[in-house]
Write a structure and sequence with these properties.
Blueprint: E1 3-9, H1 14-24, E2 31-38, E3 41-48, H2 51-60, E4 67-73, E5 88-89, E6 93-101, H3 104-113, H4 125-134, H5 140-150, E7 153-161, E8 164-173, E9 178-182, E10 185-189, H6 192-195, E11 201-204, E12 210-213, E13 218-221, E14 227-228, E15 233-234, H7 250-256, H8 258-269, E16 270-271, E17 276-277, E18 291-296, H9 298-314, E19 318-323, H10 324-327, E20 338-344, H11 350-361, E21 365-370, H12 376-380, E22 383-386, H13 399-418, H14 424-445, H15 448-455, E23 464-468, H16 472-487, E24 491-495, E25 512-516, H17 523-534, E26 539-544, E27 555-560, H18 569-587
Parallel strand pairs: 18-19, 18-20, 20-21, 21-22, 23-24, 23-25, 25-26, 26-27
Antiparallel strand pairs: 1-4, 1-10, 2-3, 2-4, 5-6, 6-7, 7-8, 8-12, 9-10, 9-11, 11-15, 12-13, 13-14, 16-17
Bound molecules: 5-amino-5-deoxy-1-O-phosphono-D-mannitol.
Length: 605
């Protein structure tokens, strides 16, 4: 994680560095810092906490200079204090770093033996001191290349040099890094989003690449130290919509945007005239497909889990799902007729990107379902299905989850049709249902007032439990994840049928238990599991698409979502569980868009 920015210009850069760091805060907000070059001096300023704090420091004591680097940190090595904040500077060089240097202890010992003194507990400082040492005998580019050869791990770097006033060096291995072009100004950034307010012309570094930026040119080198050219991408305008408007925070904006997210996504993939799905050029012939393997992390993994039910229900293809951090280290059996699908909002998640690399190295066909279409995962996949959700800024994933589910549902439907696993009337019925889905999502948002009252039940709770069966089981997992992430309350998600195998022991008088039970084939079974909870004093909060009157009087609260096709129920049931986590967090006064200890884009292992 962590966010990097670098600007080489013909005018002072500190204000633009601060503005870009604010955009990068979704990557980490433990501390912030910047270093500019002015009158042959490296001027470093840093603080623990948010970019706001750094801005206050600069307000009192401005940093001049037409060239500089900045950083927001998500702590890995060393507590989040001012000393461990980046940049890490010596007399002659200053470094910002995203990633982890796995052999930092060993490198540190060697440097200490040579007399180097360390100020921080970070792994980054070894880079500063290695480059400092190299600069005694080499130019900056050679010094950085020689340093990179000694580093193990994954990283992106931004480096400035006291004696080379007009250049910033960027380097990438594993962690993402982009550059941006403008007139009399060039940029380095952890992602294109941070650079968007300044330019829409972007190039991306590949693994092993190094770049040298000055205000009027950017040179690129590959890991063999040979000069290379880079493709320049023009960013689309819609990616610039990243304002929270009248909403209190990005998360509420993103939750309430979901009818539009759904509409945009459905319009992209459904051809209204032909009543068909616009998905072509499958990298593996659908008729010959052996297995689909779906891989993701966190919320994206939950959409894989839902998709497993859909692919199994609609097609005859075998389906496997995996958490990327597990998949990447397993002994895998590959088959060229398998399709490997990687689901990721950011397209930069380190574990998911590594899992994709493993599949590519084994010559497997890969598909990515991403929101950020210029991301590493999208660029490295054979086939990309974007979710068209627009930028998602809140750390808790909401509209991207919804978009992932819609694309996965549409994909399963298209595969079923091509393979003739579904009859045409059923196919047409599903397309029709998709068209009314945005209106149904709109109605789900109207449950907000009720959900708000329900949220009060969590204030004195020791913990909580989310239960569901079938397609509602992943929603139970997602509900628990959202609540933990936003309100710091312990929550467990379980398949309701598993309760008696252990978790029932947790139920005690007044424990909030959220039962997610659409009227599907599991409905009666879920109600029986709910009775087992009621008998032990659990406080039931019931979410269903079924009429309230039929439900038990022991239910403390019930939320009704519209009733649509059963296969689409997880999409609708997601909305109240998002609102619930949101309102519990509001009542507990938590930071909604930046929950503690987390970051939006997880670019470290
Ligand atoms: O960008 P990705 O979709 O790959 O991110 C995966 C997870 O880190 C992410 O979904 C995380 O679990 C969310 N913060 C949950 O709300």
């Amino acid at each position: 994680m962590c966010g990097i920015i670098g600007i080489a210009s013909n005018k002072p850069v500190s204000i633009n560095i601060i503005n870009s760091l604010k955009k990068l805060e979704y990557r980490g907000y433990d501390s912030a810092g910047l270093a500019t070059l002015n009158q042959n001096e490296i001027n470093e300023k840093k603080c623990s906490g948010r970019v706001e704090e750094l801005e206050k420091i600069l307000f009192k004591n401005p940093s001049d200079g037409n060239l500089g680097i900045g950083h927001v940190r998500w702590a890995t090595h060393g507590i989040p204090n001012q000393i461990n904040a980046h940049p890490h500077s010596s007399e002659i060089v200053s470094v910002v770093h995203n990633g982890i240097i796995e052999n930092s202890d060993e490198l540190k010992k060697n440097l200490e033996l040579k007399g180097s003194k360390f100020k921080s507990q970070t792994d980054t400082e070894v880079i500063t001191l290695l480059i400092t040492d190299e600069l005694k005998k080499n130019n900056p580019v050679k010094s950085v290349f020689n340093t990179l050869k000694q580093l193990k791990g994954s990283f992106a770097l931004g480096i400035i040099f006291k004696s080379y006033q007009n250049i910033i060096i960027g380097a990438r291995r594993g962690s993402p890094l982009a550059v941006g072009y403008s007139k009399d100004e060039n940029y380095l950034g952890s992602d294109s989003y941070a650079l968007k307010s300044m330019t829409n012309k972007i190039s991306y570094l590949d693994d092993g690449d190094l770049c040298v930026l000055s205000k009027d040119k950017i040179d690129f080198y590959n890991n063999e130290e040979k000069k290379i050219n880079k493709k320049v991408y023009t960013l689309s305008d819609d990616e610039n919509i990243s304002d929270k408007g009248d909403y209190k925070n990005f998360m509420s904006k993103e939750i309430f945007e979901q009818p539009i997210t759904a509409k945009n996504c459905i319009n992209e993939y459904i051809d209204s005239l032909k009543k068909d799905i616009n998905i072509y050029n499958f990298p593996v012939k659908p008729e010959d497909m052996n297995k689909i393997v779906l891989i993701g992390c966190g919320t994206a993994f939950h959409s894989c889990l839902i998709a497993k039910y859909w692919f199994e229900e609609l097609t005859n293809i075998e389906v496997e799902i995996d958490i990327a951090s597990e998949f990447r280290y397993r002994k895998l059996k590959f088959n060229s007729k398998n399709l490997y699908i990687f689901v990721s909002q950011s397209g930069e998640t380190a574990d998911t990107a590594a899992a994709l690399d493993i599949c590519k190295k084994n010559n497997m066909k890969t598909c990515s379902i991403v929101n950020a279409v210029e991301s590493t995962i999208a660029r490295n996949s054979d086939w990309v299905l974007p979710i068209h959700a627009g930028p998602e800024i809140g750390v808790a994933s909401t509209k991207a989850f919804l978009g992932q589910m819609i694309v996965l549902f549409i994909l399963s439907l298209k595969l079923a049709k091509i393979r003739k696993d579904i009859d045409l009337p059923s196919y047409d019925k599903h397309i029709k249902n998709l068209k009314v889905l945005p209106i149904a999502i709109e109605k789900c948002l109207k449950t907000e007032n009720k959900v708000q009252s329900m949220a009060k039940e969590f204030l004195d709770a020791k913990g909580s439990m989310f239960l569901g069966r079938g397609l509602s089981y992943p929603i139970a997992l997602e509900g628990a994840l959202k609540l933990k992430e936003l309100s710091y309350l312990h929550a467990e998600g379980y398949p309701a049928g598993e309760m008696k195998h252990g978790p029932l022991a947790l139920i005690e008088e007044g424990l909030p238990v959220i039962v997610i039970a659409p009227k599907d084939k599991y409905f009666e079974k879920t109600l029986s599991n709910m009775q087992e909870v009621i008998a032990r004093g659990g406080k039931i909060l019931f979410i269903s698409d079924h009429k309230k009157e039929l439900i038990d009087e022991n239910i403390r609260f019930s939320i009704k979502v519209p009733s649509l096709d059963k296969l689409l129920s997880p999409i609708l049931l997601t909305v109240p569980i998002q609102l619930l986590a949101y309102h519990v967090a509001i009542l507990k006064n938590c930071d909604i868009d930046k929950p503690r200890n987390l970051a939006k884009s997880v670019t470290v292992e």
